[in-house]
Amino acid sequence: MGQERRSASYHVDRDILDEQSLEDLAQRLDSGRKPHLTDKLPLSPFLRCSVPWLKRSLVRCLPVLYWMPRYSIWDYGMGDLIAGITMGIVQMPQSMAYALLASLPPVFGLYTSLYPVLVYFFFGTSRHISVGTSAVLSIMVGSVTERLAPDHHFLMRNGTNVTLVVDEAARDSYRVTVAVATTVLGGIIQVVLGLVRFGFVATYLSEPLVRGYTSAAACHAAVAQLRYLVGLSSTRFVGPLSLVYTLGDVCSRLHQAHVPTLVVGLLSFLVIFSAKELNASLSKKLPVPIPVELLSDVHCGTVISIFYLHNNICLSLIWCLSACRLLPPRVPQTSLFREVIGDAFAMAVVGYALAISLGKTFALKHGYKVDSNQELVALGISNTVGGFFHCYSISSSMSRSLVQVTAGGKTQVSPYICKHSSCHHVCVFCTCVCPQAVLSAIVLVNLKGMFKQYYDIVALWRSSRIDLVVWLATWLFTLLFQLDMGLAASIAFALLTVVFRTQHPQYSVLGQVPGTEIYMDMEKYKEVHGVPGVTIFRSSATVYFANADLYLEALMEKVGCCDDTLSRDQERLSLGSLGKWTWDIHSIILDLSPANFIDTVAIKTMKTVSDHKEHERDEGRGLGKETTSVVEQLEQGDFFSDCISKGCLFATVHDAVLYCTGKHEPQQKNPE
């Protein structure tokens, strides 16, 4: 048996309060001069530079100075050690596989998992996210590198033969140059946005937009890996509809598939997928996940190497990392900045959005706070520094972050240990043989989480059709266009849906709940009845320039002042049949409670309503339940005059109703 609801009642006896009376009663403070931007800048601390201020600034810029002195080896050490080693094992094959998505040699995926992690250790505020290679950003980098360094730009003759072949060494070198330039520029953009406190930019990327975008990016990644999985050297397509062209090219040439490559790829996919499912089902019993990616990579590489040496038929499977070593830093080619600035900005926004959303999720779960602006700066510095060391754009990885948490990782010490593990892999596995088909299988299996996001369609269909439209539109734009163009089109479409919602709100005429001061929509509630002679009109959205005309039209239609007499009569007949509205109107009350701002166009609309009531019928009007910010904007917009005073504004709708009915009761009792 549930607890019975406790009944309570209250009685209030007060005078009718209009805006002026309410300000006098509450003693409104004079806001005075509004502070300028220069007033908000902390210039005086820079001039004084006191020791406490300097300490707070250093801790804010370097969060490691705050949490590292408080780090407890007994509480966190063992968990971070196990999680770091586990992540290092998982990260090696995954980072090499994601490098293929970026159209770069696999070793540069290892570099990307090494240097940026060290930088984020000092500047990041999230304790649980694993930064490094990301499937979405790898695809975005790949679209840039393939656009600026396509294969046909690096054709050369094969010795004395007239056959043209691709100079892969020159092509890969220039693609690395393009990726590094894009990464450094994107990092600079992130740092600048973080310093100007622009962390809220990620709020414009709603969850349906991000999930639709990543779902489409997963399709791009899967199609890009098909040619490696079946052993085809298909033509690379860039630009709009590149996904369609690539898929058509692969399907038309399936009869040319390299059978050993296809067999190895399919077997690797089945083994890795099965092992991943086993890890998920036994996650509570296994101390650490089975490193199936690394085992598949090493075992398949060893078997294929032996098979190749004896049979000499599996050349298309091999990607040798004999050149794998730590490279000295290099200054990026700044002349490319002009060509990649749009892609760099898109990567900066998407990378930050993915990282901050995942970071806030873990922070909420584990009870700490993530600084959104500092995260933007941390990612920017990581990308900028990493670009000088041949790394491409980074973000957080959901799969690696979950591995870190489930393995017992508590702080950023575990990614730091993972970084040393990655450095060990770069130095030890410098002569290993990595089958491309296995790397492709690793990518496809790790895309499972993104493909599961298609279940969102069913959930959004039940909860919000507009969010579903945003999800589908984002998915379609990203699927048909490049990732940067798809992101821009998706954001524009999402903003249009916001305008659409405010431009077409729900307009309602309110009535009184019997025996209360509560007013609700008369068309939705049976026992709600209108106040004789008074129309209470409410819009569910803020009134501004985009919907001001529609607001006025809806008001005139509800009141009965529009030219469409038939529509007016039908409205009154409908409400009259319910016994709710059969009288003439002498007062209009506008409920502005949903409004959080009002612009000059809306102010002119309010004046139009007031002038109409004054000149046509010389009757009452009032604004009920407005917010303080709306009142201030009405004052700034010169809404008040000799004809319209603050006596037309009331604290609640009920105050306005009592005022209007009390004003016209004598006229109704003694008609002239």
Automatic annotation (TrEMBL):
This is Solute carrier family 26 member 6, like 1. Keywords: Membrane, Transmembrane, Transmembrane helix. GO terms for cellular component: membrane. It comes from Scleropages formosus. Its main location: membrane. Residues 524-660 form the STAS domain. PANTHER family: SULFATE TRANSPORTER (PTHR11814). It is a multi-pass membrane protein. It is found in: Membrane. The lineage of its organism: Eukaryota, Metazoa, Chordata, Craniata, Vertebrata.
